Amino acid sequence: MVIDSDSDHDERMGSADRGAGGEVPRSQLEALEPVSFLIRVQLPDQPGKLGAVASALGTVGADILSVDVVERGAGLAVDDLVVELPSGRLPDVLITAAESVDGVEVDAVRPYAGVLDTYRELELIEEVAANPRQGLDVFTEGVPRIIRAGWAVVFAENGDGAFRLAASTAAPETRSMRLPWLPLHKSLVLDGEEDWVPETWRELGTELAVTPLGRPERALLVGRPGGPMFRASEVARLAHLTGIVSSLLPN
After folding, report:
1. Would you say 205 and 128 are in contact if contact means Cβ atoms under 8 Å apart?
2. InterPro entries from the entry (predicted)?
């Protein structure tokens, strides 16, 4: 990170905060690092609207790193934007800025590392194909990054209940559960308030989506603590990706 040397910066840092050689301590540098957020917006599908949102975000110091169109139709678009915000700024300013543009609504804002790279799906498929015996673990670990979820778990049903086959980092520790939707024949958005959902998931406002993984008795469950809700286009994308990967896994 390059630290400017203008007088304003010197005044903010203060000579007392510098080391003997005039260097800024590492802790100070890290504190100045911008923070990345994923912001999902609904906006009129009109020329110039996204540009207006970008300009509004720029007024609060937000730098847009990447944009992905999640869904489009009926005169509306749903976009995901990864933005950097100067350290110390509250993410609430992103909501205020974006919604200052006529017709724009913010679905959710949450911390996010990296950018939205659409080629990640192909990379994940390649990883699974290169090591199919470990493919289930590789796939489950990689899915949350692609679908922008907090975690993913693969469950299987054997007649006595559902048990966990694989789980991503940050997935809940639940090893076995009563899952009334297994066996599963199509991809679904699930109601996070249903009786089978653990209380801790409900407390976090976890949005849930599920898709069959190769056969009805095996399914991939993904969760987004705090939202936003899964869109139909996202569930379709998840279903297509899972269908491809399931054909690469051992029976």
Report:
1. no
2. ACT-like_dom_sf (IPR045865), ACT_dom (IPR002912)
Report phi then psi at 203, rounded to 5: -60, -30
Task: Note the pLDDT tens digit of each residue in 78-116.
Answer: 999 999 999 888 999 999 999 999 999 999 998 887 776
Instruction: Domain 34-111: give its CATH code.
Output: 3.30.70.260
Rounded Cα distance, 36 and 194, in Å: 33
Number of H helices, E strands in the chain: 8, 10
Residue-wise pLDDT tens digits, 193-243: 999 999 999 999 999 999 999 999 999 999 999 999 999 999 999 999 999
Domain ranges of the chain: 34-111, 119-248
Q: What is the CATH topology of the domain spanning 119-248?
A: Beta-Lactamase (3.30.450)
pLDDT in tens, 66-85: 898 899 998 999 999 999 99
